[in-house]
């Protein structure tokens, strides 16, 4: 179980880097990165962390997390996926594994079957590399999630762009229903 203190900091980091950089007075570049010292100052200014948040604490958050949500490069930090801010954060297009999964709620299935998988509030559709991760993602929406199996090879072949989030998370543009099937309906 992740320490509650680390989890709280992680949630604020996600909020700032994925959803509301304006609230923190920070600017993301086209790949979603922002200057790390400025980011730390902004988080301290908004949340009054005691003791004050430091780079070491942020590294502790990242090392102890259940998922790789952030990346630090050249003293800049970004969220690797999950963005909802207007515009599109650039990700390098990549060839996905042949099969990916998506865990979702039973109540979303009629709409998903009709309209396909849509990014909804986020910039991209989020897919999982393995069943267990998909189940965890779906469990956030429904105690008995539905797992979709995605024919990522066929979708990619048909011209749909895919991007790497982290080792377990792939992103893609909207995905028509012909590229997935329901694997597990509880
Ligand atoms: C559903 C977490 C109706 C979709 C996770 C999903 C992930 C539709 C929900 C990451 C639909 C959106 C993202 C349609 C899609 N009609 N519902 N046509 N198309 N949906 O939270 O994928 O812990 O925005 O199935 O682990 O659940 O925050 O996306 O259920 O990696 O790091 O609309 O967020 O990561 O929900 O999760 P979300 P998600 P963190």
Give a verbal description of the structure.
- It is a single chain.
- The chain has 186 residues and is an alpha+beta fold.
- Helix content is 34%, strand content 20%.
- It folds into 2 domains: 3-79, Arc Repressor Mutant, subunit A (Orthogonal Bundle); 99-184, ADP-ribosylation fold (Alpha-Beta Barrel).
- The protein is built from 7 helices and 9 strands, in the order H-H-E-H-H-E-E-E-H-E-H-E-H-E-E-E.
- It has a 3-stranded antiparallel β-sheet. Strands 4-6-9 form a 3-stranded antiparallel β-sheet.
- Strand 2 and strand 3 form a beta hairpin.
- Helix 1 crosses helix 4.
- It is globular and about 50 Å long.
- The two termini are 27 Å apart.
- The model has no long low-confidence stretch (mean pLDDT 95).
- The structure holds ligand HQG.
Walk me through the topology.
Elements: H1 4-19, H2 21-24, E1 34-35, H3 36-47, H4 55-64, E2 70-73, E3 76-79, E4 99-104, H5 109-115, E5 125-128, H6 131-139, E6 146-151, H7 152-157, E7 162-164, E8 169-172, E9 180-184
Antiparallel strand pairs: 1-3, 2-3, 4-6, 5-8, 6-9, 7-8
Helix pairs in contact: 1-4
Bound molecules: ligand HQG.
Ligand HQG binds at residues 67, 69, 82, 104-105, 108, 111-112, 115, 117-118, 120-122, 126, 137, 140-141, 169.
Descriptors for this entry?
Arc Repressor Mutant, subunit A, alpha+beta, three-stranded antiparallel β-sheet, 34% helix, ADP-ribosylation fold
How do the SSEs run, as a string of H and E? HHEHHEEEHEHEHEEE
CATH class of the largest domain: Alpha Beta
CATH fold descriptor of the largest domain: ADP-ribosylation fold
The shape is globular
């Amino acid at each position: 179980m992740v320490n509650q203190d680390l989890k709280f900091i992680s949630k604020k980091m996600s909020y700032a880097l994925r959803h509301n950089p304006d609230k923190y007075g920070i600017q993301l570049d086209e790949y979603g990165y922002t200057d790390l010292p400025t980011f730390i100052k902004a988080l301290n200014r908004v949340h009054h962390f005691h003791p004050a948040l430091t780079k070491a604490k942020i590294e502790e958050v990242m090392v102890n997390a259940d998922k790789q949500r952030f990346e630090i490069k050249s003293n800049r930090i970004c969220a690797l996926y999950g963005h909802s801010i207007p515009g599109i954060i650039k990700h390098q297009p990549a060839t996905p594994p042949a099969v990916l999964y998506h865990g979702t709620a039973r109540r979303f299935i009629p709409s998903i079957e009709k309209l396909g998988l849509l990014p909804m509030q986020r910039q991209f559709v989020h897919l999982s590399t393995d069943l267990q991760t998909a189940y965890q993602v779906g469990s956030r929406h429904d105690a008995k999630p539905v797992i979709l199996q995605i024919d990522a090879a066929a979708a990619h072949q048909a011209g749909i762009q895919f991007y790497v989030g982290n080792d377990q998370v792939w992103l893609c543009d909207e995905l028509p229903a012909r590229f997935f099937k329901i694997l597990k309906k509880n």
